[in-house]
């Protein structure tokens, strides 16, 4: 039983080491190209993860997109041409920072509009609530009378 367990553990460790080695080695022989790929993929969104850049994602589609970008870079395309290709294929969603234009106004300005709308509603709610309060503060004479009542030693007998 123990030799079989040791064999399974050894197999598992070798598989893990192989996976780490594959991820650790650079995908391109050219380190300048790889650096350019990483810089560009930090500006692009993973279509699967959506909250990660293409550089940070481990999804299969992200790996495929990075390979596609790498091939286009090897073919001599500029970063702008690659971005144009990806936005033509996937739309502005692939950009981690989409451009400000009519289709993305809500994305850029929506949170501020919602915040201002919420502040407006809060202001009106507090204003109406203040108007509903009918009690007026005590006058100076009333305050003296209350203080005199509170200072009497035997409050229960006076009541």
Describe the structure.
The chain has 7 helices and no strands. It has 159 residues and is mainly α. It has 2 domains: 71 residues, Cytochrome C biogenesis protein (Helicase, Ruva Protein, domain 3), CATH 1.10.8.640; 49 residues. α2 packs across α3. The longest helix has 28 residues. The chain is elongated and about 95 Å long.
Q: Please name the fourth-level CATH homologous superfamily of the largest domain.
A: Cytochrome C biogenesis protein
Shape, per Cα inertia axes: elongated
Separate helix tally: 7
Mean pLDDT: 84
Report the span from N to C terminus. Answer: 90 Å
CATH class of the largest domain: Mainly Alpha
Share of residues in helices:
55-70%
Structural class: mainly alpha
Low-confidence runs (pLDDT<50, min 5 residues)?
A: none
Taken as a percent bin, the fraction of beta residues is under 5%
Count of all domains = 2
What name does CATH use for the topology of the largest domain?
Helicase, Ruva Protein, domain 3
* Largest sheet geometry: none
Based on DSSP secondary structure assignment, what is the total number of beta strands?
Answer: 0
The topology string of helices and strands comes to: HHHHHHH
Question: Mind telling me which CATH architecture of the largest domain this is?
Answer: Orthogonal Bundle
What is the alpha-carbon Rg in Å? 34 Å
